[in-house]
Amino acid sequence: MTLDRRRVLVSAVGAGALGALAPLHRAAAFQVEPASPAVTALMNAHCEAVSAHAQLVRDLLVRFAALGEGEAAARVRAMACPICGCSLAAAVPAAPPPSSQ
Fold this sequence. Notes:
- With 101 residues, the chain is mainly alpha-helical.
- The chain has a domain at 40-92.
- The chain is 48% helix and 0% strand.
- It has four helices and no strands.
- Helix 3 (54-63) crosses helix 4 (69-77).
């Protein structure tokens, strides 16, 4: 079988047309589905535990220590976990009461 110029051009145009039409249908290889209520409850129960974010909060408090204890705690309380998106406020230790003298 010999390839002449006409066959090469026709096959190239045909391949280009197929390539242009390929993205018109939905890809079925990857699909995002919402988590079931049972899985959602398990994930929330894990993340709501103070210990789940304790190490992250300690690291952030050390990083923001130069701002002062109160300001560092306030900034960390306003943050969300980069992994799960939960608020870090519950894992921030309570500030000691101010001493009255």
